[in-house]
Design a protein that fits this description.
Helix content is about 40%, strand content about 20%. It is an alpha/beta fold and about 150 residues long. The protein has one domain: 3-Layer(aba) Sandwich (Rossmann fold), CATH 3.40.50.2300. A 7-stranded mixed sheet has the order 2-1-3-4-5-6-7, with helices on both faces. Helix 1 packs across helix 2. The protein starts with a helix and ends with a strand. About 40% of the residues are buried. InterPro entries: Peripla_BP_I (IPR028082).
Amino acid sequence: MSARVGAELTMVLRLVDQHHPMLVNVGHGRSAASVGRARAFVEEWEARGGLVGEVVSWPEEAASWLRPACRMVAGHPDLWVVADEPEGWKGMGRRLAATGVWRPSRTIAFAGLAVPELPALAGEEATEGLRGALPDGRLWLVDDGHLVAG
């Protein structure tokens, strides 16, 4: 694992720890980077004694994203971890929001979603309160419709 991925994963783990979750569901797009980030999180979280429920993947384009969204909310997790790119999150995030169970404020994401266009692309219901880690380990979040990096 590169130092940059290590810093990103370390921050994601720190953000997850802040919620003290009993159960975490993990979702990812199908790009190699997204799959790798999700796998790294699952391995490290479980090695620390954390419980992962569902691990769900979804395509960048789909008719509805209903099946992966239902799997993401299965078991009523305390928190979600997401590794995706903006184009895939556009549909999946909206479908998750429509479940009435998922909330972006209870979701931690990797750097693939940290683009300024994300709130406009995916919509407020799929982004407001979403936060995560940049490749260098700094925090990013969506606040009032804007991506803010710290």
